[in-house]
């Protein structure tokens, strides 16, 4: 019996191995069949996608496949610059373009630095460099001194309730430029913003457009300018006045109408000054300037408040009306200085020329 068992043992084992081999082949056949089905399904989906996307997408897909093949072929290659991975010509072109931009910016910064250094050396004996902190304290000292002994300028903001949002934005910008010019002036004015409430749309617009507006060194009051100062000290500057401003008197308070009116209502500020029996004056544009020809035949003496202030500030420092008017009145207003017309011609011919222009 033992011998029979020994003889039959190996045959049974061989049968088991054969049976297991058949199972393995069956599983492999099933896996191959499943893989074929998966491949056919993927191919069908790709065909549907290609039909939907059209010829452009097909060409794009082949282009990407071509790039991938090229990258695989050159994967082991080393660039001369030491880069570990090969890049396409498009990527290399973009890289070179970016490197040029970076180099140009560095060169520009270097040139600007050298220019500033040269200016400091050139002006070292004339205008010594001061720190920003010192300049701020100097500006503050000048403005506070103007509050006690300088000329006074009042911006009448009591007429802003009829203005649109666009006009309010323009007026807020003019106030910012006016204050900036006053800070830079060697002999600044002391500024009053009258008829100005903190809950008004203009105040909100000034806070939005002007950085640090709440810390401006000037007076803001809700009072009207006519009740804030004695009427005999007021001079309302309006282009409709018959009297030209001759000089700036430290005992007077000069008023500018804070009005941006795109509908161009005439004599608004002049009528307001007459209602309160206040003296009026206009800038001496007619006395020192003449009309010049332009395409639109446009001539206007109406200026923004910051332009009027630039004229007043320049005159107060130089005591020269032509120089002051040249700074504040642009050629777009249709006026030029009289000496700009004089070309060495006889006065009779010059007068005739001016009459033709006017």
Automatic annotation (TrEMBL):
According to UniProt, the reaction catalysed is: guanosine(9) in tRNA + S-adenosyl-L-methionine = N(1)-methylguanosine(9) in tRNA + S-adenosyl-L-homocysteine + H(+)
EC number(s) from the headed UniProt entry: 2.1.1.221
- Note down the stretches annotated as region Disordered: 1-39
| Top enzyme class | transferase
Q: Which UniProt keywords apply?
A: Coiled coil, Methyltransferase, S-adenosyl-L-methionine, Transferase
Q: Where is the composition biased (Basic and acidic residues)?
A: 25-39
InterPro entries per the record?
MT_TRM10-typ, MT_TRM10-typ_sf, Trm10_B_MTase_dom, tRNA_m1G_MeTrfase_euk
The SAM-dependent MTase TRM10-type domain covers which part of the protein?
A: 139-336
Q: Name one GO cellular component term.
A: nucleoplasm
- Listed GO biological process terms: tRNA N1-guanine methylation
| Protein task | S-adenosyl-L-methionine-dependent guanine N(1)-methyltransferase that catalyzes the formation of N(1)-methylguanine at position 9 (m1G9) in tRNAs. Probably not able to catalyze formation of N(1)-methyladenine at position 9 (m1A9) in tRNAs.
Protein name as annotated: tRNA methyltransferase 10 homolog B
> What gene does the UniProt entry assign to this protein?
TRMT10B
